[in-house]
Write a structure and sequence with these properties.
Layout lengths: L9 H6 L95 E6 H7 L14 E3 L10 E3 L2 E2 L6 E3 L2 E2 L11 E8 L13 E7 L6 E9 L3 E12 L9 E12 L8 E15 L2 E14 L33 E15 L4 E21 L2 E2 L5 E2 L8 E29 L2 E17 L4 E9 L16 E18 L4 E19 L9 E19 L2 E12 L19 E13 L3 E19 L6 E22 L2 E15 L17 E10 L5 E10 L2 E2 L7 E2 L2 E14 L2 E10 L7 E3 L2 E2 L2 E2 L2 E2 L4 E9 L1
Parallel strand pairs: 5-8
Antiparallel strand pairs: 1-7, 2-3, 3-4, 5-6, 7-8, 9-10, 9-39, 10-11, 11-12, 12-13, 13-14, 14-15, 15-18, 16-17, 18-19, 18-20, 19-21, 21-22, 22-23, 23-24, 24-25, 25-26, 26-27, 27-28, 28-29, 29-30, 30-33, 31-32, 33-34, 34-39, 35-38, 36-37
Length: about 775
């Protein structure tokens, strides 16, 4: 959809949550990837067993924070070997999005989680919105079937323009991001100024691309919902070069396709993905990597419910399978993406490495919706924030076709170790160049008639492209330096600083007078980050950290804004955090307290004619406790996470809002993932529980949606067939068929309500050749 941080049209402003593209894309592997000839630590559940020269294949299943059980089938002469369980911990793996190179997650003075492709497969998750069922700190922020995934971390909405990375490089997430060729998803929690020039303060999400490993062939077939069928191929191979150098070249191919037929009515669609990644070990010191990804998704999206006048409808009285985007003229939202990256890493010596990493991303979107918004009652009363008390609403024909969003990025960096003042330093420094531009055309946002919440009233299409749109250009240059200094055997200090120079321009298109409302501005911002950690013992660490982040925006181009198109002052957020981390063979755990303050803005009425001024208006302060643990035993494990959040508004010019809770932010969340091997060898039973506390619906806190709990069940069975393995998965989400309002986004003075999805079955089989 045509949303932007520059002026944009009323249609786009009302259609979806404000997001825009700001950046770019990427791909990459760990710093010492060229040395891994027998293992791929970021591959999904099927990597060749390290240090097992005779093995032909193995399966390693890792999960957020630690590895879950897994089996492998290894062969030397064709005789099947017994299933072997490989266990480990992602807490001991490097975190790409952490910014400190090869330092394990468990040793960093920050909170992060890693969700692997195997964990996504076990849970039947194919979109980023699925992360909300795994990590208590990650929540929904306007997630509808068939559309872009929107997330919040620590109660703050992530900005799809600036808070997403792909192998460490910024990407535009205003699209349906495919996960079939991703080995893991990293979630960094907290102020992200150390890794992003401008971004929302909740954190960052980084997609890690699957790279060539040793021999691997995996074929998967799955079914779910009321008729969704999907298949995937994951193939990897290494080749020798003309000089006989073993495994000098690597190739990995991922293919996926799906016919989409979810439990939600009128939402059939399809998607496909083709991705190829290759590498060339030019020498023991030099690695060249390249990858290309093509994807497409076409599916009608889901329109939200709303209040009925001033009344919150009973979730039990609403069929959650009803899609209000069900008109005969409704068209699917279409996302197309092309991504390519190239990375060259060179090891200068034992201590220093150079890297050049560049990428391009090309997105095309057809954004369409039979869009319910507000209500004009029979007596002439207009309800902007809700539907009519009788369940009717105004329906609009929204269409914005052929939206182009193009991004590119180039990161040049050096990483290494040195000794200064009798202290050991691990340094990383570099510069990131990025460019983004969008090219849109006219859009439709036309009244189509009156609909109702049963979806039974027909309306009439009006696809006239009468609305304006906004084209945008952005360039940024980011200089960064990070240092991890060993102060003593137990104390370690951490320093990060990033200086960002921005140049942004925009102009309207499809307006009567031609190009209008040109906006351009320049900003330079510097974001520091500091940390200190203390090793209480080899398995327990205490830490404290402080950092800043910056958001940069302009006023939308709606005519009612007296300052439309003007740049807002840079909004600087601050966070401090203290915590404990521990890990051993039986449990990895962490607890922490955080405090984040960010400026916020409001639309303030300046006269009786309805004209508005957007301006900074106090702060939104979030503080809370987080806890997460991964308990491991020989036949299973339990992953648990919880967050208690105290989020409030302060300093608003509307004093009635001071001390109130922000909308759509639960105070308490808890997520559990349990697994246990039982009876039959290779059989693992799984269970998940999601609890989310009540959320405020209106800014004045006069209405809220109740808390809810969802229970999911699943099973995984690994069956050895000679030299091959079958991995069977089955599951049912929302076992009790619980009905509740899952979330309540408040956008543009309008309340949206999204119901919890109904009970859904899923099953798949993965064939490891």
């Amino acid at each position: 959809m045509a949303s932007s941080f520059f002026p944009f049209s009323p249609a786009a402003f009302a259609r979806r949550p404000t997001t825009l593209a700001a950046a770019l894309l990427a791909a990459g592997v760990g710093a010492n990837a060229w040395a891994q000839t027998a293992s791929d630590t970021t591959s999904p559940a099927r990597t060749a067993g390290a240090n097992t020269a005779a093995s032909s294949s193995a399966t390693t299943n890792t999960s957020a924070g630690a590895n879950s059980n897994s089996s492998s089938s290894n062969t030397t002469t064709g005789t099947p070997l017994p299933i072997v369980t490989v266990r480990g911990s992602n807490a001991q793996s490097a975190l790409t999005v952490g910014g400190f190179g090869e330092t394990p997650v468990a040793k960093l003075p920050l909170q992060a989680s890693v969700i692997t492709s195997d964990q996504l497969a076990d849970r039947g998750l194919s979109t980023l919105a699925g992360l909300t069922s795994i990590d208590a700190s990650v929540g929904d922020s306007y997630n509808s079937e068939g559309y872009v995934s929107y997330l919040k971390i620590r109660g703050y909405d992530l900005d799809n323009r600036f808070n997403y990375r792909r192998d460490g490089l910024p990407i535009n997430a205003e699209t349906a991001l495919p996960l079939s060729n991703k080995s893991s998803i990293e979630v960094l929690k907290g102020t992200s100024g150390i890794q992003a020039g401008t971004s929302a303060p909740g954190g960052l999400v980084n997609l890690v691309v699957k790279r060539p490993t040793v021999e691997l062939t995996s074929v998967t077939l799955g079914v779910s919902g009321s008729g969704t069928v999907e298949g995937a191929l994951d193939w990897s191979h290494r080749f020798s070069d003309a000089y006989g150098h073993n495994s000098a070249f690597g190739l990995r191919v991922n293919l996926a396709a799906a016919h989409l037929d979810p439990e939600l009515h009128d939402a059939k669609g399809k998607r496909w993905l083709m991705a190829v990644a290759g590498d060339w070990r030019v020498s023991p010191d030099t690695l060249v990597e390249a990858e290309v990804e093509l994807n497409r998704q076409s599916q009608p999206s889901q329109a939200g419910f709303s209040l009925l006048g001033t009344t919150l409808p009973d979730a039990h009285s609403i069929d959650p399978r009803t899609n209000l985007n069900n008109q005969a003229w409704s068209q699917p939202v279409v996302f197309e993406g092309r991504t390519a990256s190239l990375r060259v890493q060179h090891q200068l010596n034992a201590d220093w490495k150079l890297q050049a990493h560049g990428a391009v991303q090309r997105l095309v979107t057809d954004d369409r919706l039979a869009y319910p918004f507000g209500c004009t009652a029979s007596d002439g009363t207009y309800w902007a924030s809700s539907y009519c008390p009788d369940g009717t609403f105004d329906q609009y024909d929204f269409r914005s076709d052929n939206e182009h969003r193009n991004s590119s990025a180039l990161d040049l960096s050096a990483q290494g170790k040195l000794r200064l003042a009798d202290m050991s330093h691990e340094l990383s420094t570099g510069v990131l160049f990025s460019r983004f531009y969008s090219r849109l055309q006219g859009q439709a946002y036309n009244w189509a008639g009156t609909g109702d919440i049963t979806g039974s009233l027909p309306t009439v299409a009006d696809p006239t492209l009468s609305g304006a749109n906004t084209d945008r250009d952005e360039r940024s240059t980011e200089f960064y330096l990070r240092d991890a200094v060993q102060l003593s055997p137990r104390w370690q200090g951490w320093l990060g600083v990033r200086h960002t120079r921005l140049r942004r321009d925009s102009f309207q298109v499809n307006v009567e007078a031609g190009e209008e409302a040109r906006t351009n501005y320049r900003q330079s911002v510097t974001t520091p980050w500091l940390g200190l950690s203390y090793a209480i013992d080899p398995e327990l660490m205490a830490y404290a950290s402080w950092g800043e982040g910056v958001e940069s925006d302009v006023v939308p181009n709606r005519a009612e804004y007296v300052n439309q198109g003007q740049a807002l002052p840079a909004m600087r957020s601050r966070q401090w955090e203290i915590g404990l981390k521990a890990g051993n063979r039986s449990v990895d755990w962490s607890v922490n307290y955080f405090d984040v303050t960010k400026p916020t803005w409001s639309d303030v009425a300046v006269d009786t004619a309805g004209n508005l001024q957007r301006r900074l208006d106090g702060t939104q302060d979030h503080r809370g406790f987080e806890g997460q643990a991964d308990f491991k035993w020989s036949s299973g494990g339990l992953q648990a996470s919880a967050m208690k959040l105290h989020a409030r508004r302060h300093g608003s010019t509307d004093t009635s809002l001071d001390g109130l809770k922000p909308v759509n932010v639960p105070e308490t969340t808890a997520k559990l993932l349990a697994r246990q091997r039982v009876g039959l060898p290779g059989l693992e039973l799984q269970a998940g529980l999601v609890y989310e506390g009540r959320r405020m619906v209106l800014p004045d806190n006069s209405l809220s949606i109740p808390s809810w709990t969802r229970v999911d069940l699943g099973a995984r069975y690994e069956q050895a067939l000679g030299r091959q393995t079958l991995v069977w998965r089955v599951g049912v989400d929302n076992v009790t068929n619980r009905r509740a309002w899952r979330e309540s986004p408040y956008q543009y003075e309008h309340v949206y309500l999204y119901p919890l999805a109904v009970r859904t079955w899923r099953a798949s089989v993965e064939w490891l050749l």
